[in-house]
Amino acid sequence: MNLTTDQDILWQHGFAKLNLTVLTTWIMMVAMSAGAWLITRRLATGAVISRWQATLEILVGAIQEQIKELGVDNPGRYLAFLATLFLFVGTAALGTIIPGFKPPTGSLSTTAALALLVFVAVPFYGVRAQGLWSYLKSYTTPSFIMLPFNIISEFSRTLALAVRLFGNMMSGVMIVAILLTITPFIFPVAMTALGLLTGMVQAYIFGILAAVYIAAATRSPTPKPAPKAAPAHP
Amino acid sequence: MLIDWFTVGAQALNFIILVWLLKHFLYKPVLAAIDTREKRIAAEVADANTKRAEAQKSRDDFQAKDKAFDDQRATLLAKAVDDAKADHDRLVGDARKEADALRASQQASLRDELSALGAQVRRSASDEVFAIARKTLADLATVSLEERMGEVFTRRLRQMDAQSKEALGAALRGSAEPAVVTSTFDIPGAQRAAIQNALNETFSTEVKVRFADSDTTVCGIELRAGGQKVGWSIAEYLGALDRRVGGLLDSQGPGAKPGAAVAATHVNAAAV
């Protein structure tokens, strides 16, 4: 039994290889894109809309509202990245109810890739929002002494993101697999439901943490000076 | 080794592609649909507000027109009621006048009928009385009624009061025409002579007399000269009877006064 789906190699040519992680990711990509296309190809703008459209609108609207509540000034700019993080991790967790499906998030490579993307996206959005110097200066707040700690924090939280998601997803799959060999009836179902709940919570945590990091990076460290009042004429 | 760096790179690329795909197929269309619906709802709400304001204005206008219509209707109704009342009063007045005129006409007609009836009754009564009296006198005294009337006439000539006698004498003397003695019957020659003698003795002169029959004198003898007259007839008694009958009719019928009309026909010894 492999600990990670990376080890289930389907095809390999030198350094390049096609393993189960990439394959399930592709399947998920196709399913999510096709589902989105099928639902959004006939969007109604009237008062009466379909249930699927209403579901999607509620989902997207809720994510946008959640990002806005975290203090991000322009949530629409980060919606695609953060919402895709949540939907990808959530869909992977949801897929665990399908017998034989092994979520790509159960692979440390996948979670590391997602964490690395967050690691890159945070300074990218930070620099774009407040400029390079202002962003770099934020590492020295509240004092210059905090600079190494802030840098260590950047790496450690990226590592934490990757390992947390990997651990939760991988453990869920592993527990179900082990229980299937011990008690093949009833109990694995309960554990699968628990794993589904854990996976959805992890999806929420992953998305929220990424949003918090981006919000902290894009928010100006010093409050903007209030506009001076016009001098009173004698 | 749990991390396969090729897989890491591939998954990062896959994720970026997935971000692009979902952005293209999910987020943009959904957000665009939400924005479109919000704008459409806002436009519909604004349109509804405009229509509501227009409806409110229309309702206010309608209520104002309705009130004006009610006021005008009330005014017209009051005017119509006044006109109808005036017409009613005028028609009632006209009808009352016509009724009064008709009643007056009926009363006049009734009076005429009563007058004619009275005259007829008098004529019939006098004829009957005359016939009864003549028959009675003839049966009892073997003297004809004409003879008794002639005797009564001559006695009345002789017993005239001074004033009447003087007036009649002046009339006889002042008239060139002979005095006329009229009667309803042919006066026999003896009575004519007796009347002539009575006149001559009464007025102490030769009075020229002409005897004539009369249809108007009611059973009696009458002397006319120069606008004066003297005589006797049953009409005097009939006059009294007529006045009593007239009084009785007056008490039984409103407005009918036949006695007054009948009394005007009385002939007595007074001056004409």
Report on the structure:
The complex is a heterodimer of chains A (234) and B (272). Chain A is mainly α. Chain A has a domain at 73-218. Chain A has seven helices and two strands; from the N terminus they run ββααααααα. Chain A has a two-stranded antiparallel sheet. In chain A, a hairpin with a 2-residue loop joins strand 1 (9-13) and strand 2 (16-19). In chain A, helix 3 runs antiparallel to helix 7 (187-218), helix 4 runs parallel beside helix 7 and helix 6 runs antiparallel to helix 7. The longest helix of chain A has 36 residues, at 147-182. Chain B has 272 residues and is an alpha+beta fold. Chain B has a domain at 109-263: hypothetical protein PF0899 fold, CATH 3.30.2320. Chain B has six helices and four strands; from the N terminus they run H-H-H-E-H-E-E-E-H-H. Chain B has helices spanning 5-141, 145-158, 162-174, 189-203, 234-252, 258-263; strands at residues 179-183, 209-213, 220-225, 228-233. Chain B has a four-stranded mixed β-sheet with strand order 2-1-3-4. In chain B, helix 1 (5-141) packs antiparallel against helix 5 (234-252) and helix 2 packs parallel to helix 4 (189-203). The radius of gyration of chain B is 61 Å and the shape is rod-shaped. Residues 254-272 of chain B have low confidence and may be disordered. At the A-B interface, strand 2, helix 1, helix 2, helix 3 and helix 4 of A face helix 1 of B.
Keywords:
heterodimer; A: 234 residues; mainly alpha; two-stranded antiparallel ribbon; 7 helices; 2 strands; 67% helix; globular; disordered C terminus; B: 272 residues; alpha+beta; hypothetical protein PF0899 fold; 4-stranded mixed beta sheet
